[in-house]
Design brief:
heterodimer, A: 366 residues, alpha+beta, Gyrase A, domain 2, Elongation Factor Tu (Ef-tu), domain 3, 6-stranded mixed β-sheet, 6-stranded antiparallel beta barrel, 10 helices, 20 strands, 22% helix, globular, B: 121 residues, OB fold (Dihydrolipoamide Acetyltransferase, E2P), 6-stranded antiparallel β-sheet, 3-stranded antiparallel β-sheet, 4 helices, 37% strand
Chain lengths: 366, 121
């Protein structure tokens, strides 16, 4: 682990410290894991609105021949209209997931993407190498990213930027938000309605303070971000998926655009399409422990004394008010209601395969 | 009643011929919201430093170690239904186990309250 002095700081570092956050190392950055407490922050986000600093994530623009970019991902860029956003996957030649990312056309300019913090250097290196001279990647290292999430996020936004409040889920645009020039998308990673706001680093602190001045908005740390996304059934890269896992195995086949399936022109298409036509060996599923003991990442999933899978994310779901988990099991055991056992500290505990998400999505679809 | 503290943030309090054991307010605050506590079986014999219990917060699982050697003679069953008691009353109702100590002299080497305060400051 990196020692404290070598950690990078986001533009909101001083604000986090001022707000009493407990700072931890995450993907090379000093990040707030919690302010008043994970449970309270989780519940506040589900009840009102939470502000998350996700400036550690990678932001970039792509210009030039879009076909060079499309060849690396699973989206249909021809079908991505102005003001639209898509969730897509960066795939290696073997069909494994290198990263998951958001891609959009927020303004008259180039494609805009947001990638995972821990993957950004390798993602951008891979893209530049494959683009050659056909397309250009411009990393936006001078921008911060804030997420405003929760059922009252829309009302908060309506007071500051009525035009952005008219966006629906997976739309994006360029706006003036309380006087700040920003890119806003109606999306997030909590399962709630909300927005992601890209802003110049130099004014990020001022914008965050403006948003936090609304009494409906509280700062939320990485701890609650993790429990919120787990309840929403959303994958955390490096845990619920990695370079050895295909989109079909990760239960992310919906991110394979129809036109791309028909053209079979994404990396690893032969392997991935074969898995789609038949059944993959393993699948990502939701898991509900039947007692109160959380099963963490790495816990083995057992049926009739045989190991049939492993938990990849697990913890306590404050909204569900019970332990929740995700993991991979043999595909023939992936149906909801399937009884399994989870090995927690050497003890088999009863659990059931469950439908995802654990907490219903409440996106604003208009 | 004498209360002693370990550097791993357990407290142990002699009460008659048994010792009550729990985690300190400092540890509870560091862990955050406790959602599950796994307690040992009554009758189990532990040596000082052995893993005694596991406390789970929303974020993570943490081990709790036996502050002294002895036999578990009681566990706090109330924590099963209300694990949050560990946060609310770590020094009292949020106790973990009662032990019959095999070597009460082990407590002499542990920190008293003043020393523990220095340890956590």
């Amino acid at each position: 682990m990196a020692d404290e002095a070598s950690l990078l700081k986001t533009p909101l570092y001083d604000l986090h410290v001022e707000l009493g956050a407990r700072m931890v190392p995450f993907a090379g950055y000093a990040m707030p894991v919690q302010y008043e407490g994970v449970m309270a922050e989780h519940n506040h986000t589900r009840a009102a609105a939470g502000l998350f600093d996700v400036s550690h994530m990678g932001q970039a623009r792509v210009s030039g021949d879009e076909a060079a970019f499309e060849a690396l991902i699973t989206a249909d860029l021809g079908a991505l209209g102005a003001g639209e956003q898509k969730y897509t996957l960066l795939i290696n030649d073997e069909g494994g997931i290198m990263d998951d990312l958001m891609i959009s056309r927020p303004d008259d300019g180039d494609l805009f993407m947001v990638v995972n913090a821990a993957c950004k250097d390798s993602d951008f290196a891979h893209m530049r190498a494959r683009f050659g001279s056909r397309a250009q990647l411009h990393e936006l290292g001078d921008r911060a990213l804030l997420a405003l999430q929760g059922p009252q996020a829309g009302a908060v936004m309506a007071d500051l930027c009525p035009d952005a409040a008219k966006l629906v889920f997976m739309q994006a645009g360029a706006f003036s938000l309380a006087g700040f020039d920003v890119l806003i998308s109606r999306s997030g990673y909590t399962g709630e309605d909300g927005f992601e706001i890209s802003v110049r680093a130099s004014v990020a602190d001022a914008l965050a303070r403006r948003l936090l001045s609304d009494e409906r908005v509280k700062p939320i740390g990485l701890g609650a971000r993790d429990s919120l996304r787990l309840e929403a059934g959303l994958c955390l890269y490096g845990h619920d998926m990695d370079e050895t896992i295909t989109p079909v195995e990760a239960s992310l086949a919906w991110a394979l655009a129809k036109a791309r399936r028909e053209r079979a022109d994404f990396p690893g298409a032969a392997r991935i399409l074969a898995q789609l036509a038949a059944v993959p060996q393993k699948k990502r599923v939701g898991i509900l422990p039947q007692d109160r003991a959380p099963a963490r990442e790495g816990a083995e999933i057992v049926v009739d004394g045989q190991t049939v899978g492993v938990v990849t994310s697990g913890g306590f779901g404050p909204t569900v008010n019970a332990p929740v988990a995700m993991g991979y099991v043999r595909a023939d055991l992936a149906s909801p209601g399937q009884r399994v056992e989870l090995m927690v500290r050497g003890k088999a505990r009863p659990a059931e395969i469950a439908r995802l998400p654990f907490a219903p999505h409440r996106f604003h679809r208009g | 009643m004498t209360t002693r503290y370990t550097k791993d943030h357990e407290w142990i309090r002699i009460d008659g011929d048994v010792a009550v054991v729990g985690i300190t307010a400092y540890a509870a605050e560091q862990l955050g919201d406790v959602v599950f506590v796994e307690l040992p079986q009554i009758g189990k014999t532990l040596s000082q430093g052995d893993e005694m219990a596991v406390v789970e917060s929303v974020k993570a699982a943490s081990e709790v170690y036996a502050p002294a050697s002895g036999e578990i003679v009681a566990v706090n069953d109330a924590l099963e239904g209300t694990p949050a008691m560990v946060n609310e009353a770590p020094d009292g109702e949020g106790w973990f186990v009662k032990m019959k100590l095999s070597d009460p002299a082990q407590l002499e080497a542990m920190m008293d309250e003043a020393a523990y305060k220095v340890h956590t400051s």
